[in-house]
Amino acid sequence: MDDASSTGLSPTHPAPSADTNEPPPGAIGASRPRVEGPAKVTGAVRYAADEPMSDLAHGWVVTSTVTRGRIRELDTSAALAMPGILGVIDHRNAPRLNPEAGSFFGPDGGMHLLQSEEIPHSGRPIALVVARTAEQARSAAMALRVTYDEEPHDVDFSPDHPAARPATSHFGEDATVGDVDVELAASAVVVDERYVTPEEHGAAMEPHSATAWWDGERLQIVDSNQAPFLVAMTVATLFRLDPKEVRVRSLHVGGGFGSKSGTCGPQLVLAVMATKMFDLPVRVTLTRTQVFQIISMRPATDQRVRIGADPDGRLRAIDHAAAFEISKLADYLENCTELTNTLYAARAIRTRRTAVPIDILPPYSVRGPGTTPGSFALESAMDEVAERLGMDPLELRLRNEPAVGPVTGLPFSRRDLVACLTEGARRFGWATRDHRPRTRREGHLLVGTGLAATSFSAGALPSSASITAETDGTFTVAVGASDIGQGARTALTAVAAETLRVPSERVRLLIADSDLGPAWGASGSRGTASWTWAITEAAAELRSRLDGAALPLTASYDTTEALGKLPLMERHAYSAVFCEVSVDPATGEVRVRRLLGMFAVGRVINPLLARSQLVGGMIMGLSTALHEEGVRDAATGRHINTDLAGYHIAAHADVPDIEADFVPDYEPDIPAGVKGVGEIGTVGTAAAIANAVWHATGLRRRTLPIRLDRVIEEGPGS
């Protein structure tokens, strides 16, 4: 092939057929099923625990039965005498790890397993039993005899805890704009309330699993994670290896929601330890209970929000103080005040973030980190302002739309929140709502509606991609993306096809392998924007070089330098969520009847999959509002609902008719104009439901989840 036409590169996009306005199949904007869908529904897809491996050994994790203390004695003699046992790894013989290894937030002692006899939190891994079969490893694990010197533990989270301290900042400093106290004193209406959210777990369908083995001098890993390149770099640091010696693959992941993001999960740390010691491939797969015990969760929060407003609803002051629990092993910032800094105009804004270190597993990101609990607090408080003013909550939000970033003063790249609110209100029938609470009944049921507005930061992070024009007319696109169920394979195939100007059938996509080069993970709602940027620029470079070139020909692009040239702006996705609930005052049962979400999420690559992501996010928000709650026993410090029977999540019967749709949006300066859709669906939903419950009952619930016992009244006539 010696010219562009012979490669199939047309000078323009293929035209849509005459009888439809839909984009051509495979192009950006076309609804298309997942490319891996048939393989998934027929069982052909292999997840991390399915990878076939010869001479495979299995590791079984043993966890502590105390919350704080030290191991006095760990007797392995009975276990080692059992059939098939290869050995036991504990603090006395485990490889020494690099204490500097950590995450985005700094050194993380949660990864430094089996390094001492100390027990810093309940469920801490204290040993790994390695055997020829998983059943043998489990039996031997039950035969270990462990005695402890138990010490008093502290799992009592409170914003007034004596150890509370300002949170380490990774997302900018706390805000101070204007004089909050003066503006509150001058306000006609002041809301001053506390909002409490519990620990929440990602509870992904696929339990965490990792297989590690040596291929010559190279460490090979198959792991369930959201960021293979970042995980590979962390493994290299943790085990003091050259990064070139580590390869991590995560070809198919059964959900993550943050629990499999850019750090090394305990299954991976222990699998690598075992393969180093026994020189065999070793697989470590966690049980469901172990996932709850030793995989990071969203921290509990306690937030005080004060809002002052004039009689016409103009906000004078917003004061948001958010406290959240952390582990003594690692710093983590649950950035609850992010929305307060950007959502509404006010003369004065002040935010404070407080970390409370206690004896728990290090928390980490769960879908919509910071913004999910933060939105519940801020948007509940906004509705309380509207209530006290006797104003429509929709009108209150529209009246306080900012022209520039309320804290930064930076221009918005594009801001379509008003469009989300007004179009959502039109579709939902908001104009017919009686804004007085407890006015609508259906028999013994109370019925109410509510809304919440929200945003989620948008942008891209450094990623690389390479594209090869093959001799057979196809194109191989290689990018270290991760598909955790969000449809990255399908979306990135469409991006590559459009930018290369070829049918999608001629694109072969390689992802989920650290060998493919640096790339951001599937987290922070920045995966698609980051990978798309790299693919788009690599495609442009390839097309510019194809004319007359010998094949195969490869072009690569790394976005790091280009990202540094982006103009400083406030970049966000936006949404408005509307909800209708029924409440049975005699039983406390809350049923969500309708959820409508309108979203401004940039250019939508695949509407079918994007809607699926947003509907899934809203269901998770419903689950947050009504069900999810990690519960600890104060006496033992241990989680008491470490399974999917005790840890309630939304089931089919809880999910109403849900509608998610888009308002026109486009993110300037980001190739293809895309933003993320993975998290914004979750962020505002709990607040919308809480506001609807208030409208139905006339009583405000400021603690999540909104359980039966928090809603039930003395009698049906109350």
Strand order of the largest sheet: 3-7-1-16-13-14-15
Tally the structural domains: 3
What summary fits the major beta sheet? Answer: 7 strands, mixed
- Low-confidence segments, given as residue ranges, are 1-25
Number of helices: 17
Q: Report the radius of gyration as a whole number of Å.
A: 26 Å
Q: Report strand %.
A: 15-25%
Fraction of residues in H or I helices: 10-25%
Structural class: alpha+beta
Summarize the SSE layout with pairings.
Blueprint: H1 37-41, E1 57-63, E2 69-75, H2 77-80, E3 85-89, E4 102-103, E5 106-107, E6 118-119, E7 125-131, H3 134-143, E8 145-150, E9 165-166, E10 176-177, H4 180-185, E11 189-197, E12 200-201, E13 209-215, E14 218-223, H5 228-238, E15 246-249, H6 266-278, E16 282-285, H7 288-294, E17 297-298, E18 301-309, E19 315-327, E20 348-358, H8 371-389, H9 393-399, H10 417-428, E21 441-442, E22 445-457, E23 464-469, E24 475-479, H11 488-500, E25 507-510, H12 527-545, E26 553-558, H13 560-564, E27 572-584, E28 589-600, H14 607-626, E29 657-662, H15 680-683, H16 685-697, H17 708-711
Parallel strand pairs: 1-16, 14-15, 19-20, 24-25, 28-29
Antiparallel strand pairs: 1-7, 2-6, 2-8, 3-7, 4-5, 9-20, 10-20, 11-18, 12-17, 13-14, 13-16, 18-19, 21-22, 22-27, 23-24, 23-26, 27-28
Helix pairs in contact: 8-16, 11-12, 14-16
